[in-house]
Structure formats: C-alpha cells, structure tokens
Design goal:
By secondary structure, this protein is an alpha/beta fold. It has two domains: 159 residues, TPP-binding domain (Rossmann fold); 77 residues, 2-Layer Sandwich (SIR2/SIRT2 'Small Domain'). It is built from nine helices and eleven strands. The protein binds 2'-O-acetyl adenosine-5-diphosphoribose (OAD).
C-alpha cells in the first residue's frame, strides 16, 4: 500500500493475527507525537536533548537549584503541546482500540495527545505535563495564575508547585506501571511505537510480552535495541504506518 510518501508493507501474517486477537498492548514514546510537531527526546537534530540538557531541567535537584529555569522550560513545553493536535498515528490507535476486545495503551508521553485523540484505556507512565502538584506536600492542584514573574505556590503548605510529571530518579505512578506490566505479560500482540526503548522501566514491557509469548511489533523509522528481538519491524513514521495497518486489517 502506498500512503503518504512511504510504501508501507504490512505482513499478511500480522494482519491475519490482528483480526482474531483479543488482548493487545501498545507502548508509545515521543516518536508518536513527532508528527504533531512535538520534538522527541533523543533525536540528534531536533530532539529536546540537543538544545537543553534534561539532567539540568527534569530532576528534583534541578528544581531545588533553579525552579524558575525549570518552570520556564515546562511552560514552553506546555505551550507547544497546547498548540499541537493529534496526528494520524494517534487516530489510528483510537480505531484499533475500537476493534480489539481488551486493548491497553501505555504511554511514556506527557502530552495527553492519546486521550485528546479519543483513546480510552490509557496508562500514562510519566504523568501529564498539564497537571501540577506541590513539590513539598505532593497535593495535586489547579495551577493558579498568581502574580506574573512569581513562582506558583501551594495554598496548603506554601511549598513551590511543580509540573506533575515523573522526573529522573523518581518513581512511576504505581497503578500505571503495575497495570502496564500485567497487561504486557498477558498480551497476545504487543506494539512498541516511537520509543527508543532505552528508559526503564518502560523498556522492560516488550520483554515481559516476549516472555509471555506475545507477538511483538516495532513501529519506528530507526533501529532500536528492541528491533532484533521482535517478530515484525514496520520501518516508518507512526503517522503513516499505523493508518496503513488499520486500513489493511479492518477496512
Ligand atoms: P526518545 O526521544 O528517546 O525516542 C523517540 C523515538 O521515536 C526514536 O526511536 C525515534 O527513532 C522514533 N521516532 C521519531 N520519529 C518518529 C515517527 N514519526 N514515528 C515513529 N517513531 C518515530 O523518546 P522516548 O523513547 O519516548 O521520560 O523516551 C522515553 C523517555 O525518556 C521519555 O518519556 C522521557 C525521556 O527521559 C521522562 O521524561 C521521564
């Protein structure tokens, strides 16, 4: 099938398997939002890591040292994400969910685009950038406008507020990672889409799926450490590969 600029080959064995499958787990990373113009983390030319050192921005230590710099960075990312729209890759996953009896979408992305696209059973492993909590007491809050130029503070304890995302060195939300691990172990088909498969514990999820006997599929224009271990590699951008896959299997 020719779709957009690339030729997407969907192996028949995979499309046949998907028509009869009950339990599917999808793990997504920054690559699935690349076509919504949100830069990925690790891509050399365009990734956030090229312009900024995340270890100086996305850690509790960084926030302690320079909360203003960290907030500036997150405000910039919030604006970028507010302006972004779900792309055909997000929308294809909504359609896939409609055809699969037990479908779990696990995402490392904090941009909320899967839910905005219409995906329902979504586990956000790294939080959501639009939410805010207190750095000291942990209470989740609606962010308050406050005075321009001042850092937002918790109304309960007076502590500084921070974005409610998982920073390096912090634990993932327990319910999300436990749910993701259980779903991965029971998956019949597992997709790893747009992730460099480097950051733990998310990078272990496809390995649990392999141990559980799942058919594992990678969708990524580039090779990753997972590529050699999966049954199917669909090389290409998620926004082209996923619509092509859904069309071949269900239309
Ligand atoms: P990365 O930036 O590490 O990887 C993005 C992946 O997307 C790469 O493998 C690209 O080849 C691939 N990619 C790029 N464009 C794509 C496209 N159009 N379609 C499909 N794939 C594409 O992002 P993640 O793997 O998500 O965590 O990074 C994992 C975690 O590392 C992030 O959640 C973040 C970071 O530290 C935290 O902030 C806690």
């Amino acid at each position: 099938m020719i779709l957009g600029m690339i030729k997407v080959e969907i192996p028949e064995q995979l499309s046949d398997a998907l028509r009869n499958v009950r339990r599917v787990v999808v793990l997504t990373g920054a690559g699935v939002s690349a076509e919504s113009n949100i830069p990925t983390f690790r891509e050399a030319q365009t990734g956030l890591w090229e312009k900024y050192d995340p270890t100086e921005l996305a850690t509790p230590q960084a926030f302690n040292c320079n909360p203003r710099l960290v907030w500036d960075w997150y405000r910039w990312r919030r604006e970028l994400i507010s302006a972004a729209k779900p792309n055909p890759g997000h929308l294809a996953l909504v359609e896939m969910e409609a055809h699969i009896p037990e479908f779990t979408l696990v995402t490392q992305n904090v941009d909320g685009l899967h839910r905005r696209a219409g995906s329902k059973n979504v586990l956000e492993l790294h939080g959501n950038i639009m939410l805010t909590k207190c750095f000291d007491c942990g209470r989740g809050v609606e962010i308050e406008a406050g005075n321009p130029g001042e850092l937002p503070r918790c109304r309960d304890c007076g502590g500084l507020l921070r974005p409610d995302v998982v920073w390096f060195g912090e634990n993932l939300p327990a319910a999300a990672i436990e749910g993701a691990m259980q779903a991965a172990r029971q998956a019949e088909v597992f997709f790893s889409i747009g992730t460099s498969a480097l950051v733990q514990p998310a990078a272990s999820l496809p390995l649990y799926a392999i141990q559980g006997g799942a058919t594992v599929v990678e969708v990524n224009p580039a090779e990753t450490p997972l590529s050699a271990q999966v049954q199917f590699v669909l090389r290409g951008p998620a926004g082209e590969v996923l619509p092509a896959l859904v069309k071949v299997v269900w239309e």
